[in-house]
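Ops channel
N.P.: pipeline sanity check, posting one input/output pair.
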């Protein structure tokens, strides 16, 4: 087992060793991942168009890319129904549902702290025009 001093050089060059949660942050907190997972968690199974409509400002191309990545990461399950026309549905996986407490905590933090963040931003902007 490596000692703390043996890890220090690697941690200086490898962000994942410096912060072991960085891999999770990359998966969960990319620009569109959070709204996709949040929507699938709160609204349930969705067709592509429903998901696109609910998220609003996401492009079809980006939604497709993010859904594929989330499926690859095991966060989303894609179900293809061989009908005419074909129907595809997306839902959050059990692995993705495991993030619900994290999202709930983040939502609580946001409700409690975003006003303070906005005040800090305004104060900063006044001092640093």
């Amino acid at each position: 087992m490596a000692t703390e001093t043996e890890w220090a050089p690697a941690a200086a060059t490898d962000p994942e060793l410096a912060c072991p949660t960085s891999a999770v942050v990359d998966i969960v907190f990319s620009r569109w991942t959070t709204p996709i997972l949040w929507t699938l968690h709160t609204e349930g199974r969705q067709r592509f168009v429903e998901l696109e409509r609910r998220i609003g400002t996401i492009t079809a191309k980006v939604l497709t890319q993010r859904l594929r990545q989330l499926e690859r990461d095991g966060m989303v399950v894609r179900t293809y129904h061989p009908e005419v026309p074909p129907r595809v549905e997306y839902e959050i996986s059990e692995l993705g549902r495991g993030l619900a407490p994290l999202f709930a905590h983040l939502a609580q933090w946001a409700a409690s702290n975003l006003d303070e963040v906005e005040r800090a931003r305004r104060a900063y902007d006044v001092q640093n025009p």
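N.P.: looks fine end to end. Residues 99-129 form one domain.
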